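Methods, example record. To illustrate the input and output format used throughout this study, we show the complete record for Gfo/Idh/MocA family oxidoreductase. The sequence lines were provided to the predictor; the line carrying structure tokens was produced by it.
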Amino acid sequence: MNNAKIRMGMVGGAQGAFIGAIHRIAARLDGLIELVAGSFSSDPTRSQATAVMLGINPTRCYDSYQQMFSEEAKLPADQRIDFVAIVTPNHLHFPIAKCAIEAGFHVLSDKPATLNLAQALLLEKALQDSDCLYGLTHTYTGYPMIKEARQRITDGELGTIRKIIVEYSQGWLATSEDENAKQAKWRLDADKAGISCCIADIGVHAANLAEYVSGLEITALCADLNHVVAGRTLDDDGTVLLRFNNDSKGVLLTSQVALGEENNLNLRIYGDQASLEWSQMEPNSLWLKSHNAPTTLLRAGVGLKSTAAQNSLRTPAGHPEGYLEAFANIYVNFAKQIHAKKAGYSASNSKFDVPGIKEAIRGMAFIENAVAASSKDTKWHPFKIG
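The corresponding predicted structure is encoded as:
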């Protein structure tokens, strides 16, 4: 495979932006990707200051994403960007992605993919009409022990899945004073975040993780979303009952007002032969539980049987790998996918284990179905797409 670095452009992520810096760290961690261009802010002065900080050629720092795609497309193929990383608030994800695809550039977007489901379906159409790749940074799928859990379920070690419990609790929006933070302001603004705050921001991660690891799909749900802090119009807490396509049931708990919680993402999957439990706060551990056998603690780097898990590790056992490394695994796989595409090989998202447009659409559908179900008295609602 070609060893030349994949060239990345970035939209958003100016100095002081949390997720932009995370994306840049993840992209450069394995040395496969080079950030060469960007439109980091709608404020050209701030954008240029960010380019200087990052050592990017000032001529490749653009005043708008439209300008970036137009000017980069004029460069020789071995100089222009290969893909764009989108790290803006939700309402800009779709127009940037669509513009990039129409200009012939691959896209790796922060989640959720778009502002609403209709936009996600339009994005799918744009991809079908192009030769571009699309990835979505559902970061938690990048953890080695999550990949190990997925493989063990695929191999039938748990038997038939009976129940899934996934919880994602945070406390950073527990009070009205927390709304003054920059990250909070746009997430609580329907014009920028969409119809949901908590479900769209972290609940969608939980839903994606449940489907990714179990191999099942949500087919129906019952939702109760709340506005706990007075004055908010978007949800900051929620509980969703789930039904999966093997007729098993699940529970999804999500909250941004769980005072004292940091980033508490937990997954438990119960089969008729065994069960698995994983926590993002202790990501190198995976618990395997059986009915008539001792509970087993599986540790990253120690006797794992999953090739996907082994390939996601960078250090020997006992050297913790966490959020940044999991994030980088999405970037590594996307870079390999682009290299394969350039070489004329098959470059499907499933082959390279990159969340793609299917996950984007299912994520937006989960958000809209959960919000709609929460407003109804009927218990169960079919999971609809389109």
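Annotations derived from this record:
The CA atoms of residues 43 and 63 lie 8 Å apart.
The chain has a mean pLDDT of 96.
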